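Notes, p. 3: input format for complexes.
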Amino acid sequence: MFAGENAELTASQKDKLARFAGFTDQFLSADKVVIANPMYNLMIPAELKSWVDTVNVAGKTFKYTAEGPVGLANGKKVLHLQANGGVYGAQDPVSAIFNFIGSDFRQIAVEGHAYDPEKTEELLAEFIKKVELEAQAF
Ligand SMILES: Cc1cc2nc3c(=O)[nH]c(=O)nc-3n(C[C@H](O)[C@H](O)[C@H](O)COP(=O)(O)O)c2cc1C
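Output follows (138 residues plus flavin mononucleotide):
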């Protein structure tokens, strides 16, 4: 059954909502956010998806208007680092949601080591160089 906004919440529901709000506040009050994850089955890991689902809240990180959704993240710097064995050009659900909420979103991937495992060290070294360069301006 759907509980309306004014429904009485149980103590454990209130605790859970407070924890969710804590994650959102932590995200909104951070100067910079760095997310690092592997790709699993063309997706981000379930734990990261759960974190995104708790952090991202209508009225806090975005709002709906008559003209459509508006991001409220005010250009917060978010750097996303992802490892994937194939090559996808850093396309994934993380970019969609962090662009949606209006963050200043950048991505660097280390990718393709499953296609050519002998190149792993080389790909990793290139990735670290890119991250170090980005970190200077981030
Ligand atoms: C369960 C599982 C699923 C994976 N699925 C993908 C995938 O869909 N696409 C891909 O490019 N790589 C996939 N990979 C490879 C990982 O993204 C890659 O090895 C990455 O470097 C993992 O980071 P880690 O080595 O730190 O665990 C998968 C690996 C695992 C273990």
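The pocket of flavin mononucleotide is lined by residues 38-42, 83-86, 114 (CB under 6 Å).
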